[in-house]
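Tokenised fold entry reproduced for absentees:

. . .
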Amino acid sequence: YLNVLSNNRWRERWCRLKDNQLLLHKDREDLKSHIASLPLRGCEVSPGLDHKHLFAFRLLRNGQEVAVLEASSSEEMGRWLGVLLAETGSNTDPATLHYDYIDVETTANVIQLAKQSFCFTSKRAVSPSPYLDNHVNGYACPSGMALHYDDVAINGM
């Protein structure tokens, strides 16, 4: 769930990614219909809104705000930023974004999780072999990243 700013009100929505779109659902149980569908290709991801919404981030297209979203924690924010950066086709390193209202330690946590989810999403989406190298879009993916069973290389291959 993410909080979504709509008509100057925050509403909790179940959010998921499908075919390079962010789908917003009223709740987790109703996945057949969605409230909104936001195409992500070409969008920019920008963290920060104000000091009351520390884990908020915006989606922009050509400088125009497409959506304002808010995670419930720095961990969720980091994961969403990484996945959204990958889905938008961005080459932006999460460390270069401006995290205005978050303290240094929390910012470091957000950046680490954003890089992990960015690398994981990018490798799964675009890399012909995720075992050949450890770089995605010009920066090294963190070692020690949690792997799924199908990400583990088989000896001799």
Residues 125-139, 142-157 have pLDDT under 50 and may be disordered. The radius of gyration is 16 Å.
